[in-house]
Amino acid sequence: MPASTASIELVRLRKSYGPVEVLRGVDLEFRAGEVHALLGANGAGKSTLLGCLSGAVRPTSGSIVVDGQAFQGFAPREALDAGISIIYQHFQLAPTLSVSDNVFLGDEIRTQSSLLDRRKQRAATSDVLQRINLNISPDALVEDLSVGEQQGVEIARSVRREPRLLILDEPTAALGKHEVEALLALVRRLAHDLGVAVVYVTHLLGEVMDVADRVTILREGQVLWTRERNDVVIADIVEAISPGALSVHRSGERSASSARLASFEGFRTAFCGPLDLDVREGEIIGVYGMLGSGRTDLLETIAGARSGWEGKLRLGEADLDHGSVAQAMAAGVALVASDRISQSLFPSLTAIENLMMPHYPQVSRLWRNVRKEHRVFAETARKLHLNPPSPETAGGAFSGGNAQKLMLGRWLAGLSDVRLLLLDEPTQGVDIGSRAKIYELLRAFTEERPGRAVIFATSDPEEALALADRIAILINGQLEHVVEPTIEEAQLLSLAQTIEVDHRQLALRSAP
Ligand SMILES: Nc1ncnc2c1ncn2[C@@H]1O[C@H](COP(=O)(O)OP(=O)(O)OP(=O)(O)O)[C@@H](O)[C@H]1O
């Protein structure tokens, strides 16, 4: 491993939005050849800090020092020129173009007569793919690749520019277990063999212990500490991110009711089924499966967001036949979707409007009880540790994890008679302390009134085991096993394993 040298330094970096100070004098150094995990609770300021590095956010004061030269902030192009590259959760690839066209997108190699020099681009792409040990053809179309391979293309695109600093923002959210392992190995290689300074942002602490060389905790816009990975244990990190979170334990034994709340008989969606399952009153069912197993298709169909299901779905005494989200909600079925930003959040509406949105149709505008709305908002914000707990903040100004809490709050606020609550990846992007809190709230949701149940889908085995009363394992759209959460994580993983699937086939089959 090359000797650690400061590659990029942040000096007294500050960022305010109006009166709100989000970064409060951050001093931090990222070193060549090192993976630096940047951690913190939702709203601690991680994305804002990354935005300052990538040129998306202009710091209010302070500087970013690259090779001894101090910058007061970057335009995005300047950040690239300074050797800073960022890979977002949502890939920025052109799916219908080849791998090498994507690697050179926006920075094409031209012949003397200004034509695209595909031959050179192809050769250079092969070279980069080889350097990072990725076995993909430069000619493959991006849309034909698996999600993990697509992420590899994103990384190849960054590596081609020979970055000094590579930032990965929650990079494993969309990946299956094997793809996560491959990514972590690649991240280590980039730092240790190619000498890149890597900044790794995540809420998944297992990954931190696996991949980081140093760890920084950001709390309320300031560095709490930076330590060598070998000098910390997970408990130190949890306590630093969310003080007191370690004392939140699973609340006593849950007593299963024998009464049936919902039942699926020969339930078949475009991709899943036939599915036969009874859900008991008060029960939390976890649907666990790999990427492409059909989890999202199943939940969205039950919630009326995808049409065309067959078979029988009973809730209480009623046979449901809904074909829209509104009809499903009227029957007592609600969904918190996984991609909250594009599917549920209204960025320009206020927090309170976002919370109340699904409930407005039941209340005439004239008869709205504004005082009650504010009371409900304050109570929900407190329960969910929403940050900031302010009703007037725009939806788009919340950090990722806080936006998720707001979406959950819609259904946990007790404003409507939801009986079957569906959640797709309920704590993706949510910090470790808030995650435990959300589990508590979901349990309370099923316990505080009879006739309620939760079905959540997750790709995280720890989440399935921590939250579910029973776990339904989905493989290629088929319900293969229903198990108790007392099984070992390794067992759960092996039950959900499938042969490598062709993702393109799956995409075609799952199209409505
Ligand atoms: N455009 C904005 N206007 C006002 N406040 C903002 C804006 N963008 C971010 N904030 C506030 O800055 C704080 C830090 O947000 P940031 O997104 O950096 O947090 P984070 O650590 O990345 O959180 P998460 O883990 O949830 O992604 C939050 O309180 C957020 O509400």
Automatic annotation (TrEMBL):
Instruction: Give the protein family.
Output: Belongs to the ABC transporter superfamily.
Give UniProt keywords alphabetically.
ATP-binding, Nucleotide-binding, Repeat, Sugar transport, Transport
What organism is listed for this UniProt entry? Methylopila musalis
Domain annotation ABC transporter: ranges: 8-245, 253-501
> PANTHER family from the entry?
CARBOHYDRATE TRANSPORT ATP-BINDING PROTEIN MG119-RELATED, GALACTOFURANOSE TRANSPORTER ATP-BINDING PROTEIN YTFR
CDD domains listed in its UniProt record: ABC_Carb_Monos_I, ABC_Carb_Monos_II
The protein's matches in Pfam families, at most eight in alphabetical order, are given as: ABC_tran
Q: Does the keyword Plastid apply?
A: no
Identification of the protein by name: Sugar ABC transporter ATP-binding protein
GO MF, one term, reads:
ATP binding
Top-rank taxon, per record: Bacteria
